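Q&A log
Question type: sequence-to-structure
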Amino acid sequence: MQAFGNIDWDISATHIPYPEALARMETRQAAIRDGSARELIWLLEHPPLYTGGTSADPAELLSQQFPVYDTGRGGRYTYHGPGQRVGYVMLDLAARCKDVRCYVHAIEGWVIAALDQFGVKARRAEGRIGIWCDNRFGQEAKIGAIGVRVRRWVTAHGFAVNVSPDLSHFGGIVPCGIAEYPVTSLADLGITASLGDFDAALEATLPDFLAALEKASGTCNT
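Response status: OK
Response body:
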């Protein structure tokens, strides 16, 4: 485990079952809140599974070929599995910026900046959750998902970016409730990159993410 200032940086080498990840997040979130643990950015992979956020519509769960878990994060159904980099971010917004919108905007910017390291011009899309880019056919496609939960100003959950997952696995859900757009990945775009390569891009752009939170702290609601 590395550290960046007061933030621990942990990369798991094995596939982490979702209940185990959720339990660790909740425990760490409470410890950060009471001051007994440092903030944490945890990068991992899950085995194939679906999660439903607080706005999940059961009609958008099209198949139960993989385990399905309810979760306290925002959003609808999403897929996690091998080849997808999941980032669980546990930060104390009370010491940074007590504004969830500022925080989500900063997370989005961080993922966009990391993708830019591979020449992917990713972006936000008005009215649509997630991170978007053009796929190899010129269609707008989703390459990353964002879903956070904030409890007493300590964050949990975070982002998921498609590096090289099996995209057919997304067919069991309506990803984030958006049926009219496809999903894509770095591999689908013809970009050869490992999860380690993407982790390095996240690490390189981490200072800008933290700086964005610092900048927002002067303007957000406190």
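Response note: The radius of gyration is 16 Å.
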